[in-house]
């Protein structure tokens, strides 16, 4: 049986939909999970959707994905710009890994321009709001099917 695609969400993303809709959109993380589940199913895949505010827990989830997932889609949120631990965990993966962001960090504060994650993933999709998740899924599935 095909392994699920892990969609991993970092710190504060549990609050999505409660503030700053002009930057992050109005969808909640539960809305995004539902939309991703439906899109993945239509393309023949299951998802495992996780969120944590704790850096070490995100590392544990990535380690779990090494054996349990066919691909990883990750929005590390603020840890994108700080976490060597998440970078190192992603480097251990032998499966496609796609970094996604709702906003376009390159257009924002200068501290968001550095991604420690970008060097450890297959590619990055950012700036499309909740659609970044769907585009990430499509990219992962295309890689898995070719
Ligand atoms: O644009 C993205 O997806 C980010 O990963 C979101 C992070 C930010 O630190 C990154 O630079 C870019 C912030 C996630 C927090 O999101 C909230 C949204 C609404 C309310 C509270 C937090």
Task: Please characterize this protein's 3D structure.
- With 146 residues, this protein is α/β, with parallel strands linked by helices.
- The chain has a single domain, classed as Rossmann fold (3-Layer(aba) Sandwich).
- The protein contains five helices and five strands, in the order E-H-H-E-H-E-H-E-E-H.
- It has helices at residues 21-24, 29-42, 55-68, 84-91, 131-145, and strands at residues 5-11, 47-51, 71-77, 97-101, 123-126.
- A five-stranded parallel beta sheet has the order 2-1-3-4-5, with helices on both faces.
- Strand 3, helix 4 (84-91) and strand 4 form a beta-alpha-beta unit.
- The longest helix has 15 residues, at 131-145.
- The two termini are 18 Å apart.
- The mean pLDDT is 97.
In short:
The protein has helices at residues 21-24, 29-42, 55-68, 84-91, 131-145, and strands at residues 5-11, 47-51, 71-77, 97-101, 123-126.
């Amino acid at each position: 049986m095909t392994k699920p695609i892990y969609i991993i969400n970092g710190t504060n993303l549990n609050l999505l939909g409660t503030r700053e809709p002009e930057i992050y959109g109005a969808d909640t993380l539960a809305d995004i999970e539902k939309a991703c589940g439906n899109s993945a199913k239509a393309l023949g895949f299951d998802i495992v959707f996780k969120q944590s505010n704790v850096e070490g827990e995100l590392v544990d989830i990535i380690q779990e994905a090494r054996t349990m997932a066919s691909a990883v889609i990750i929005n590390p949120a603020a840890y994108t710009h700080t976490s060597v631990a998440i970078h190192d965990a992603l480097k251990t993966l032998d499966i496609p890994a796609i970094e996604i962001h709702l906003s376009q960090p390159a257009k924002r504060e200068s501290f968001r321009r550095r991604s420690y994650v970008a060097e450890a993933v297959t590619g990055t999709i950012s700036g499309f709001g909740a659609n970044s998740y769907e585009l990430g899924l499509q990219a992962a599935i295309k890689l898995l099917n070719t």
